[in-house]
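so ive been stuck on this for like two days lol. basically i have the seq below and the ligand is S-adenosylmethionine, smiles is in there too. i just want the complex predicted, nothing fancy, no docking runs or whatever. if the output looks off dont worry ill sanity check it later, just need somthing to start from for the group meeting slides
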Amino acid sequence: MAEDPSHSHLGDHNGAHAMHQSGHHDHHDDAAFLETNRNHWNKFAASYSSEPWQKDMLNKINAFIYANINWIGVDFVDSATTFEATDPAQVRKVRVLDYACGPGTITYALGSHATEYVGIDLSENMVQAYNLRFNPAIKDANNEDESLNAHAEIGNLLTTEEPPAAFSGPKYHDFDLVVVGLGFHHFSDVRLAAKRLVERLRPGGVFLILDFVTHAMEAEEHPDVKASANTVAHHGFSEQELREIFAEAGLKDFALGRMGDEVYIRGKSKREPFLARGSKI
Ligand SMILES: C[S@@+](CC[C@H](N)C(=O)[O-])C[C@H]1O[C@@H](n2cnc3c(N)ncnc32)[C@H](O)[C@@H]1O
C-alpha cells in the first residue's frame, strides 16, 4: 500500500514560519505560533464545514477512514454486538484520544467503533463545537449527528516541560488509539508531538495520523491563504520523515497509505491525504 510520497519542498515564501518548517524549537516563538493557531481556529470553528470545498474534503476523509478501518489495526468494537448489549458492564472498552480534534471530524468518522472519545484542542471554539456536536444534552434540535460518548477539553499536551496537571489522570492515559487528523502540519515540533502523544497510549495501542503528502506552497496573495499559512509549520510529510518520527517515538509496525485522490483547499490548493500508523512497543 505504501509508496514514497516525497517530493522536494519548494522554497518557503514566508520567512515568518520558515523557522518552524526547519524544526527549530524556541519557547517564545512557539508561544506566539500557538496563539496564532488558537486565534485562527477560534475564528473558523463555526464555519469548518460550511463551504462546498470543505464538505467535499470532509466527505472524502470520512470515506478514506471508513475504507481503511481494519488497516488501522485497532481491535474496534463491533457495533452489531454492542448495540443492545444485555450487560453493558461486559462491553469491551475501546478508548480514543482525538488530539487537535477540531469539531470532531475523526471522532465522527470512527463513530460507534469505539466506546469512549476524549478530544483535546487548543481552540476553545473548536472544543465547544465538538461538545455541541456529540453531547445530546447540549446539542440543538437541528444537529443530526448520533450522540457518542465523546467529550473535548481545551489544552495543549505538546510542551517541552511536563504537560498540564489537568491531563495527568487515568482518563487521559492508556488509550487504544491516539489519532491526529489534519493537525500534525500545525505542530511546530512534530518529534516532540509524537513522543508526547505516544506517552498517552497503552502498550500495543495505535498512533494514527491523517495528514497531507509533501506539497508545494501556494503564493499567498489572498488574505485567507495568508492567515492559514501562518498556522502551518510543515508543508506535508514524506514517508521517510514519518518513518523516522514514528520510530523515534517508540512505535513499531509502521504503515502508510495514500488516499490516491486529491482534496482542494478553498477549491484551489491540491493536497493528497495519507494515513500513517504505528503500534506502541
Ligand atoms: C485543520 S484543524 C483539524 C481539526 C480536526 N482534527 C479535523 O480533522 O478536521 C487543526 C486543529 O488543530 C488544533 N491545534 C493546532 N495546534 C494544536 C496544539 N498544539 N494542540 C492542540 N490542538 C492544536 C487547532 O486548534 C485546530 O482545531
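Confidence is low (pLDDT under 50) at residues 1-26. Residues 15-73+92-280 form a domain with the Rossmann fold fold (CATH 3.40.50.150).
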